[in-house]
Design a protein that fits this description.
- 2 copies of one chain form a homodimer.
- Chain A has 438 residues and is an alpha/beta fold.
- Chain A has a domain at 174-417: Enolase-like C-terminal domain (TIM Barrel).
- The first copy, chain A, is built from 17 helices and 12 strands.
- In chain A, helix 13 links the parallel strand 8 and strand 9 (321-322).
- In chain A, helix 1 packs across helix 4 and helix 11 packs parallel to helix 12.
- The longest helix of chain A has 22 residues, at 108-129.
- The mean pLDDT of chain A is 96.
Amino acid sequence: MATRILRAVPCDVRFPTSRTLAGSDAMNRDPDYSAAYVVLETDHPAGIAGHGLTFTIGRGTELCVDAIRLLSVHVVGRTLEDIAGDMAGFWRDLVGDSQLRWLGPEKGVVHLATAALVNAVWDLYAKLEGKPLWKLLADMPPERLVDCVDFRYIDDVLPRAAAVELLQAQLAGRSQRELEIRRDGYPAYTTSAGWLGYSDERISDLAREAIAAGFSHLKLKVGTSPEADLRRARLLRKAIGPEAHLMLDANQVWGVDEAIAAMRSLADVDPWWIEEPTSPDDVLGHQRIRSAIKPIRVATGEHVQNRVIFKQLLQSGAIDFCQVDSCRLGGVNEVLAVLLLAAKFGVPVCPHAGGVGLCEYVQHLAIFDYIAVSGSLRDRVCEYVDHLHEHFVDPAQVVRGRYVAPSRPGYSGEMKPESVRAYSYPEGSAWAAQAASM
Amino acid sequence: MATRILRAVPCDVRFPTSRTLAGSDAMNRDPDYSAAYVVLETDHPAGIAGHGLTFTIGRGTELCVDAIRLLSVHVVGRTLEDIAGDMAGFWRDLVGDSQLRWLGPEKGVVHLATAALVNAVWDLYAKLEGKPLWKLLADMPPERLVDCVDFRYIDDVLPRAAAVELLQAQLAGRSQRELEIRRDGYPAYTTSAGWLGYSDERISDLAREAIAAGFSHLKLKVGTSPEADLRRARLLRKAIGPEAHLMLDANQVWGVDEAIAAMRSLADVDPWWIEEPTSPDDVLGHQRIRSAIKPIRVATGEHVQNRVIFKQLLQSGAIDFCQVDSCRLGGVNEVLAVLLLAAKFGVPVCPHAGGVGLCEYVQHLAIFDYIAVSGSLRDRVCEYVDHLHEHFVDPAQVVRGRYVAPSRPGYSGEMKPESVRAYSYPEGSAWAAQAASM
């Protein structure tokens, strides 16, 4: 029996995180971590639904919600079996909508909304198969995985046949790596200590706690002033000791020359990478920064809009780490494309997370990447931020600095109904209470 | 007396152009040319208002309208004098909104909405100064023009001081070129003959009419099948003769290798340029295509999201023509940045137009570029499409293949109130009638 998608019910869910400055950085000073969330209701007798989201930071979430509504005509009325039978075609229907495409193409609000719908479809697919998403993907033969990818605009660098070969080369080790991940989990790093809005003392305390909790990689937000950046980075280095990996994140505030100068002055604290040193659109800028600041490595991705920019960042040797975002890219299908591109160029994937639901999502992607695509954990760590997990039905779990492989069916993005109700914007109790007190 | 902006009133205006297939191409099969339109009402005693728009093609226009509403907090309540006193700072306020920026940054729906607001502010500014926009700009000293530009992310290639120098070098010839443009107009080319939905016969007829009307440059949409493309291109070449310039436009349907193969087969008709041969995001792809198909030249821009991508297209030698779009970029300020970048690299600017209001806008930009930035007409033609002008208060006029320099104060994007009423979506009479007949 085919399962038909009957309705797409989108919702604007916002958490008032700006009240605590958790999540603050040089570019995003006061984020209210939010999600344009969508539930795909079906005719499945057990009531199975697909839940998906895209991550936003407050104002404008309603634009993504409305875009989900507009794009849902490509989803509603179809059966999961029909969609799964031609995943690349389904994805092309969404990104190629003959009028909505103009508003991107494949970027910005419309692409974020695409991610929510595509992620919801994969959640439904995994639930119907009774597997966590990573396992659903890791069980697919190479041809089947490649069938999910739209090779338009990337086949000059990665033809379909080469992608199949690349996956075939990792087939033999899949089950061994799966056992290993189930046993040991996937390495995580934490950003929770280093928000820009935190005091020096708080950063030191949180960093020591993180090391005690088993983390070996920590990230600090920079990009205020050279003096403040250096002072805070030295403080963090002192708190974590010389062995731990210290990553820095400028969240795009610098120009190219500025980034080079800034990183020369920060070299002192032995940073493992500098993240988002400049505009995510600037492939050639990243290339120049990377060659100028070696051996400090360059990372970017949370704002890289689609596989076309990633293709260029990889083919030009502009980045050392590929930080795919589960919601910035157009959902699982496009993430697959980028994992394949990264593997082709031998660049480690260290997914972006934090926010709302991103940790829940990217653990699946990182684990699948290890099992079936890259086959390596070298220089791989998956971001972790320890807030807002309590709102999810199957929250991400990190133990001794490692993500525990999810075992419940689905893609882990399903929120608790009571959380959706309370944080619905503007009518939820969390916001109504604020409005009343103002 | 300062003029204060009291309200921003956005409106969703759509024209049912998909009924005739005017505007159809390989990627955009059924556009309903539309605008997210905004009126900035002021306290000016004569009731002067600023009118601005961003161009869209139907569904999703409401997303831009809502984004205009969200962004208007950075405009409403301010005086024009305050804004004009720090144009780059004003622009940074819009694109740097601490929560909305996440949805781009500087791309997609939010950036399109930015364009509408910025264009409305410039319209107001020009009206208050009693000048057409091109003249307002052409009268500004170099430092003042450069003060309008946000150099973040481009100063590695074009530092502020170099931009000032570049403008200073053209100061001496400004008045001579202004006289020339007022007398002769600015060269235009037409796309009206070559829509993809048009029959062979219609294309030939329209092409002969265009040549008779004084056009020397015509554009044809390609990207269906190699055979159909070649047949139609030969037909058009035959209709216009060997001397006229024939441009081709693939609207992004090809991958990089596909584009190279397609253009080798189309070389036969001696195309002057191939426009949008692949994804507008693919700087390195354009670079490869350009070097592979010489001497056919490469053009792109209508979907180039911001100055960062243009910077790279120009610095890497990926394009021969820079097709700035007045609404895809974040309005006049960012167009200025791109005109300066193009001048620095000696690449001719041939603005994208058509749609709704784009011809009205880009005539100002092309004329200003000639008078004050590039100082050259060599290889410059400004796109013209002959529909929907009747809805504008000060419509673009093309005579004998040349744009007549606008003389009325403002940026020419003001629509007739009765057109706004009739085509407001969905409540306007043009749409209500359709709904009733369905």
